[in-house]
Amino acid sequence: MILFEDVSKVYPQDYIALNQVDFHLKQGEMAFLTGHSGSGKSTLLRLISLMERPTTGRIILDGNDISHIKGNDIPYLRRHIGMIFQEHRLLMNRTVLDNVGLPLLIEGYSRYEIKRRSLAALDKVGLSGKEESFPIHLSGGEQQRVGIARAIINQPPLLLADEPTGNLDPKLSLEILDLFKSLNEYGMSVLIATHDLGLIAKMRYRTLTLKEGEMINDGLLR
Question: What is the pLDDT of residues 119-164, one digit of tens each?
Fold first, then answer.
């Protein structure tokens, strides 16, 4: 699903965000990506989601070498990736249904198909009956679930999450991680960036650890 081969990312002023990183996330696998702030977690996710290009090395995504992908091929490959952020990035003046269906609206789907798939996505994240609500009237955990529903509406094989529980209390954080677990059980590959070691220790999944841009650990948290 995701293969990094000797991947480095260097920004201006010779700032090394990632340094010769190697790892492989298999199809249908769920893993955590951890490390202190500035360790390179967000950069790694940005490389996978084609927001950035590697300086050196090779990145294979679902069999495609995306290291030097042409710009006009990026939108097609991004349809295979669901992206979730710490900030929900919801449109507060639009209903939950409108927020979830936005990716399909952009792609030109019919109103009927957008509604059908949006309701199915909301049901999957436990928000049936909230489709006509506005995000401002939802709790933080519910808003995050709306963001997850929007990310999975295209049924992507890969789900990336960047600090998805950073603004939530421990109880809500566990609920969101349980949701990721259920999505993984549907067959979706899931990679979650987080600095909360206590939280991920309870999940017992493979953990990839970055430190100053280098992968220093690749295995289950002990």
Answer: 999 999 999 999 999 999 999 889 999 999 999 999 899 999 998 8
For the stretch 107-118, pLDDT in tens is 899 999 999 999
> Rounded to the nearest 10 degrees, what angle do helices 96-106 and 140-152 cross at?
20
What is the CB neighbour count within 10 angstroms for residue 94?
Answer: 14
Strands 2-11, 158-162: parallel, antiparallel or unpaired by DSSP? Answer: unpaired
User: Tokens 């017992």 label which residue?
Assistant: 204
List C-alpha distances in Å: 172 to 134, 141, 144, 175: 20, 6, 10, 5
Kindly report each contact of residues 85-89 with a partner whose C-beta sits within 8 Å and lies 24 or more positions away, as own/partner.
85/147, 85/162, 85/163, 85/164, 86/162, 86/163, 86/164, 86/166, 86/167, 87/167, 88/135, 88/143, 88/144, 88/146, 88/147, 89/147
Q: Number of helices and strands (H, E) in the chain?
A: 7, 10
